[in-house]
Amino acid sequence: MTHTSRSNDSSNNSACVHRFGWILAGATALALAGCSSILGEKPKKPTTQYAPDPRVRADPSWPNANWQLSLSTPNAARMIDSLRIAVRPSGNEIEVYKGAAWAKLPSSMIEDALLRTLEDSGKIAAVARQGSGIGGEYKLVLDMRRFESDYGQGAAMPSATIEINAKLMHNPDQKVVATQTFLQAQPAATTAVPDVVDAFERALETITGQIAGWTLISGDAHDKTHKR
Q1: What is the block-wise mean pLDDT of the chain (228 residues), using blocks of 10 residues?
Q2: Mind giving me the DSSP string for 131-158?
Q3: What is the pTM of this model?
């Protein structure tokens, strides 16, 4: 009886070890399969960030303004004001360039470029961002309508297209002094993203100079009339 019991125990232990071995082997196989699946994945291509940095020289013909200006952040739809670089392959389609992004939002690019241009021009008493604590007789309100690479009319090369509506307001009476829409479309040398970004920098430089000059001229004209 005793011998039979030991034999059965030995058989049971052997069976348990055998089954445990299969379980362990199966778990190991699954783990290895998971590892091989992960190792087999292609590494994601890193996103390249672009930061256009236009430098606009003041036009000597711009008037000297002895008033202060507050500059508000441009208003824009979320799809337009995005870190993804938008491209319009045809009239009603909007896509984005893969593996490429702006380093900062288009609205920030425009605000920074305008602020720097007006500050460095030496043509205005003071200019500051709205909410900075520095008041101004005038306020520049911007609406960004387009900031995209556009293959308009089936063109072979895209154009960096920026469209902005500007309103100059007289703060004391909250009246709109002047309003104008600015549009720039600079063709890219090729379809490659770096060339498209170069076109955006040129478009941003031109439209910044146009808006800065228009602001000074419009504000100066109103200031002279208002003081009579």
Answers
A1: 42 42 40 43 80 95 95 93 95 92 97 97 93 86 98 92 98 95 98 98 98 97 82
A2: TSS---SEEEEEEEEEEEEE-GGG-SS-
A3: 0.79
Compute the distance between CA of residue 184 and CA of residue 205 in angstroms, rounded to an integer.
10
Please give the angle made by the CA atoms of 157, 160 and 165, to the nearest 5 degrees. 145
Distance CA 208, CA 164 (A): 10
Count of other CB atoms within 10 angstroms of residue 180: 14
DSSP classification of residue 75? B
User: Are 80 and 146 within 8 A, CB to CB?
Assistant: yes
Structure tokens at 71: 């500059």
Dump pLDDT digits (tens) for 165-182.
999 999 999 999 999 999
* Closest to 20 measured CA to CA, from 9, 8, 28: 28
The CB density around residue 111, as the number of other CB atoms within 10 Å, is: 21
| Alpha-carbon gap, residue 151 to 149, rounded angstroms | 7
| Residues contacting residue 102 through CB under 8 Å, at least 6 positions apart | 49, 50, 51, 82, 83, 84, 85, 109
Tell me the pLDDT tens digit for each residue of 3-22.
Answer: 444 444 444 444 443 443 33
Backbone angles phi, psi at 81, to 5 degrees: -90, 75
